[in-house]
From TrEMBL:
<dbReference type="GO" id="GO:0051539">
    <property type="term" value="F:4 iron, 4 sulfur cluster binding"/>
</dbReference>
<keyword id="KW-0472">Membrane</keyword>
<protein>
    <submittedName>
        <fullName>Formate dehydrogenase beta subunit</fullName>
    </submittedName>
</protein>
<dbReference type="InterPro" id="IPR014603">
    <property type="entry name" value="Formate_DH_Fe-S_su"/>
</dbReference>
<feature type="binding site">
    <location>
        <position position="227"/>
    </location>
    <ligand>
        <name>[4Fe-4S] cluster 2</name>
    </ligand>
</feature>
<feature type="transmembrane region" description="Helical">
    <location>
        <begin position="320"/>
        <end position="341"/>
    </location>
</feature>
<dbReference type="InterPro" id="IPR017896">
    <property type="entry name" value="4Fe4S_Fe-S-bd"/>
</dbReference>
<feature type="domain" description="4Fe-4S ferredoxin-type">
    <location>
        <begin position="159"/>
        <end position="190"/>
    </location>
</feature>
<feature type="binding site">
    <location>
        <position position="246"/>
    </location>
    <ligand>
        <name>[4Fe-4S] cluster 1</name>
    </ligand>
</feature>
<keyword id="KW-0408">Iron</keyword>
<keyword id="KW-0812">Transmembrane</keyword>
<feature type="binding site">
    <location>
        <position position="200"/>
    </location>
    <ligand>
        <name>[4Fe-4S] cluster 4</name>
    </ligand>
</feature>
<feature type="compositionally biased region" description="Polar residues">
    <location>
        <begin position="139"/>
        <end position="154"/>
    </location>
</feature>
<feature type="binding site">
    <location>
        <position position="242"/>
    </location>
    <ligand>
        <name>[4Fe-4S] cluster 2</name>
    </ligand>
</feature>
<keyword id="KW-0004">4Fe-4S</keyword>
<feature type="binding site">
    <location>
        <position position="210"/>
    </location>
    <ligand>
        <name>[4Fe-4S] cluster 3</name>
    </ligand>
</feature>
<keyword id="KW-0411">Iron-sulfur</keyword>
């Protein structure tokens, strides 16, 4: 990932001549599809309702016939990370979905129910008291919402699990696609990014180009693989396998515009309930990749989930770099020419 922040003054999307960066109103039409192309689709993953069941991971493996592997990508190896209940580890050539398990120790109030008259002093609570809910969060909040960061009077601490099903972001500006020399990676009529494994020559240019570390080479044959957003299912009118399998609707599939509106409502509802850490990730079309086709509602900083806080399409700076190269070459040519012009006969 480039070290230059997308907030750099020179790169705030004002460079209209740079088609590798900034918002794109019609990403599919921009790739040459006719005006009547389907609406852009994507994923809204609401991590606040993810229960970490990994049904999405299994459904993806099953539908796409992906081999079993360990966290290093070794095929037919049933590896245990030994550090977490998450034994997938990360996205890879054989793991196109990965549910991150993040364990956090947070300060919370956990007063225990005890016997005593209503309103008793010194923290005594009658047995028939309603369940204890943190004062910042109303009773209607979900379990994940109740465990949001809080001040504590009792000094109690509690483990909370953050779970998030990660996947290819199907970026508006997909660097993997920009650098692919064979056309193996292409933009579909649905606005998604797909790799054609029979055309991939294994050069691996796309792997370091992806700012999220999503696309990966298979160790045995060198070709790259990643989520296709179930292109084969979309063309048959089906929704992606992972979204179908998710029991809590943490993974929501649909037209991107509708998903964005739904995500905005969900975020507003959580913030109204006092869930301070809630935020959308990949929703902003002015970010470093022009917004993502697969975006997330997180309950903490992106880094906590292993996501880059400020991803930037790695081809963004190419026009500026080529302009600098051109200016340098012109200066060298000018110096050489002046050396000849200034010589005595
Ligand atoms: S997340 Fe990476 S692999 Fe997926 S479309 Fe974006 S650049 Fe390509
Ligand atoms: S959309 Fe399809 S390929 Fe992508 S993660 Fe879900 S099941 Fe796997
Ligand atoms: S996203 Fe859905 S299917 Fe995947 S782990 Fe979370 S709850 Fe389970």
């Amino acid at each position: 990932m480039t070290a230059i922040s997308s907030a750099s003054a020179a790169f705030r999307g004002q460079d209209r001549g740079n088609r590798l960066f900034g918002p794109v109103p019609d990403v599919t039409g921009d790739r040459g599809y006719a005006d009547d192309h389907p609406a852009r689709v994507g994923f809204f993953t609401d991590t606040s309702v993810c229960i970490g069941c990994k049904a999405c991971e299994v459904a993806c493996k099953e539908w796409n016939l992906l081999p079993m592997d360990d966290a290093e990508g070794t095929v037919d190896a049933l590896g245990l990370t030994g550090a977490s209940y998450d034994n997938t580890g990360m996205l890879g050539a054989n793991s196109w979905r990965h549910v991150a398990f993040v364990e956090q120790s947070r300060a919370v109030d956990l007063p225990m129910p005890t016997v005593g008259p209503p309103g008793a002093a010194d923290g005594q609570r009658p047995l028939e008291d309603p369940p204890v809910v943190h004062p910042q969060v109303p009773a209607s909040a979900t379990t994940a919402e109740q465990s949001a960061p809080s001040q504590t009077a009792s000094g109690d601490r509690e483990i909370r699990w953050l779970m998030s099903s990660d996947v290819c972001k199907h970026c508006t500006h997909a660097a993997c696609l920009d650098v692919c020399p064979t056309g193996s990676l292409f933009r579909t009529e649905f606005g998604t990014v797909v790799v054609q494994e029979d055309i991939c020559n294994g050069c691996g240019y796309c792997v370091p180009a992806c700012p999220y570390g999503v696309i990966d080479q298979r160790q045995d044959d060198g070709r790259v693989f990643k989520c296709t957003l179930c292109y084969d299912r979309l063309t048959d009118g089906l929704q992606p396998a992972c979204a179908s399998a998710c029991p809590t609707e943490s993974i929501q599939f649909g037209d991107l515009d509708a998903l964005q509106a739904r995500a905005d409502q969900r975020l507003a509802a959580l913030q109204e309930k006092g869930v301070e850490g809630a935020r959308l990730y990949g929703r902003d079309e002015t970010d470093g990749v022009g917004g993502a086709g697969a975006f997330f509602l997180l309950l903490d900083e992106p880094e906590v989930y292993g996501l880059p806080p400020d991803p930037v399409v790695t081809t963004r700076d190419l026009p500026a770099m080529w302009r600098s190269v051109g200016a340098g070459a012109a200066m060298v040519l000018g110096l050489i020419a002046s050396a000849f012009v200034g010589r005595r006969r």
